[in-house]
Amino acid sequence: MPVQFKRPEALLDVYMHYCPGCSHGIIHRLVAQAIDELGIEGDTIGVASVGCSVFAYNYFACDMQQAPHGRAPSVATGIKRCLPDKIVFTYQGDGDLAAIGTAEIVHAAARGENITVIFVNNAIYGMTGGQMAPTSLSGQITQTTPYGRRPEDGRPIRVAEMLATLDGPRYIERVSVHDYKHVKAAARAIRKAFEIQLRGEGFSLVEVLSSCPTNLRMTPKDALKWVEQNMLTYYPIGVIKDGGVSCAG
Amino acid sequence: MEKRLLRGNEAIAEAAIRAGCRFYAGYPITPQTELSEYLARHMKKAGGVFIQAESEISAINMVYGAAGTGVRAMTSSSSPGISLKQEAISYMAASELPALIVNVMRVGPGLGGILPSQSDYFQATKGGGHGDYRMVVLTPDSVQEMFDFTIEAFDIADKYRMPVMLLADGILGQMTEIVVLRDIKPKSFEKSWATTGTGKKRKHNIINSLYIQPEESQELNLRLQMRYNIIKEKEQRYEVINPEADIMLVAFGIVARVAKQAVAELCKEGVSVGLIRPKAVWPFPDACFSRAAKAYIVAELNAGQMIEDVRLAVNGRAPVHAINRLGGSLLTVEDIRQRVIEIAGGVPSACAI
Fold first, then answer.
1. 10 Å Cβ neighbour count for B353?
2. ipTM attached to this prediction
3. Beta strand ranges found along chain A (DSSP E)
């Protein structure tokens, strides 16, 4: 019987450290699948960030750099400007991109750097054990908001919409991986982001809503339901910006 | 031989291009901004990349990414900006990435001021960022040396796969002198570790500094320390004037220029005085201290930082005195002359009378 489903070549056959039910596995797969489909593995350089996805450099088959916390867009800028014909992507979580790395992502977007950013938003700090993220929902209980996130802890940041107010970005879309239908849509968006870079059209970012069952203290199934019921209402999925015109608001 | 009248900051920039540096990212800060401005005008013509980043932090991280592709890369700043770069410098040391970092020192602490200083000596030589690492730190004392040392810095960085710092100060950065511009053919170094795309022909390269397992982390740290030990043996750089003198001044950078003049005047007066001038402050030139003089005087534009390394090198064999100037002004020839005479117990001819 022919093989119907297999691991993408751009994803190495190694043991991953992610928790059971974590969405990173799916998102890694989607990135690797896009790399395979476009035949760009040998020409791609990925940038891993700090947080749960730090070990991404061990999982992708392409060349990888590991960036200091929040600085992946700057590291990617250095790589891409030196190797403009190569494909450069960053893989960043919400703490990395939307808190400590806010300046770097805003200015990489403003410069319209021809890179692709995979922004994984699971509304919590995973690696350090479940503290409040810049994208944690209002009222969300975390290790550092034991009574729920209050206004003075900060209102959750809609990164995709915020970046879409800039003239620099070419393509911004928010997707989710909480069910199969949405995983398929996420695959299309990630592939499109890489295609835009291949055509030299500029900055592309895909925000991926994902689940962290370990730190949400839920079963994998309930965590996915939590994403669907809570995150999708605050972080609406869809194309936020495509081309010169911002679709935000 | 081409000669040109250049400002110190511009000499570094011109040397960088000639040394094959093809990536620069920086952020404006006085007194080094002319370096950025020069490269903004000339880097593109040389086929390189110039980026004005949104911050010092972003600039050094762009250099991290660029250096990881095997391209010769650099950033420059002045004291407060160099503080901001420390995180990534530590990462680069651990990831074994070669690059040049220029610090045109200004007075601190805090925002300090834009006037010259040498008060980042500790930061430059003792680590600066977190973890057990070192940088080779070159200390020019003229615009010519800013040009020459920049070229050398790139070779040292590539040879040892590490960040190298050029440590200058606001006077050297701003002053204008005639520079002999050597046309050099940049040395090429094998960089099979660079992330340039696997071409699906080799295993992926990883630029990384995370080692979770203690054995792996120990291996990295021991490898770095072994390299630093080799550098301590091979890369001590210095100039010595009157090596047999009773009193030895020790000074680097702009203060060494002043000290040289003081030594010349004092010798005419019959005082037995010489000068040890480190051309690199890490590795510190211990070799100059194998013979103990009767006394040492360390002249610095700080509260006494290099003096600690001098004391370690002298190791109690002779008294080590200091002359310091804080706040952004320069020690004068007369300041140093008076201090030497004080330690010498007077001028010999005067004593004879």
1. 5
2. 0.96
3. 44-48, 63-66, 87-93, 116-121, 171-176, 204-209, 238-242, 245-246
**Domain final position from B207, B234, B261:** B234
SS3 A118: strand
Taking residues B300-322, what's their average pLDDT? 98
- DSSP three-state, residue A31: helix
**At A244, is the pLDDT very low, low, confident or very high (cuts 50, 70, 90)?**
low
Which residue in A58, A65, A106 is closest to B195 by CB distance?
Answer: A65
Q: Are the beta carbons of A63 and B204 separated by less than 8 Å?
A: yes
Work out how many domains chain A is built from and give that number.
1
Chain B nearest-CA distance from A208, in A, is 25
Contact B61 A47 (CB under 8 A): no
Range of the domain at B36: 2-234
Examine residue A12 and state whether it is found in any structural domain, yes or no: no
* Contacts with A, B 198-237, CB within 8 Å: 198-201, 204-210
Between residues B346 and A192, the one the model is more confident about: A192
Whether residues B7 and B132 share a domain: the answer is: yes
Contact across the interface for B210 and A43, Cβ inside 8 Å: no
Which CATH number is A221's domain given? 3.40.50.970
Residues B199 and B122 in one domain: yes
For the whole model, what pTM was predicted?
A: 0.97
| Residue A1 located in a structural domain | no
Query: Residue A30's domain spans which residues?
Result: 24-244
pLDDT band of B351, cuts 50, 70, 90: very low
Q: How far apart are CA A57 and CA A249, in angstroms?
A: 36
Q: At what angle do helices B56-68 and B79-95 cross, to 10 degrees?
A: 30
3-state secondary structure of A148: coil
Q: Taking residues A20-35, report their average pLDDT.
A: 97
Q: B282 and B339 share a domain?
A: yes
Average model confidence (pLDDT) for chain B?
Answer: 96
Residues of chain B positioned with their CB less than 8 A from the CB of A82: 22-23, 49, 65-66, 69, 71, 73
Q: Domain containing B294 — which CATH number? A: 3.40.50.920
CB contact under 8 A, A74 and B61: yes
CA distance, residue A148 to nearest chain B CA (Å): 33
Within 35-64 of B, beta carbons closer than 8 Å to A belong to 49, 51, 53-55, 57-59, 61-64
User: pLDDT at position A246, please?
Assistant: 42
**B148 and B290: one domain?**
no
pLDDT of residue B349: 60
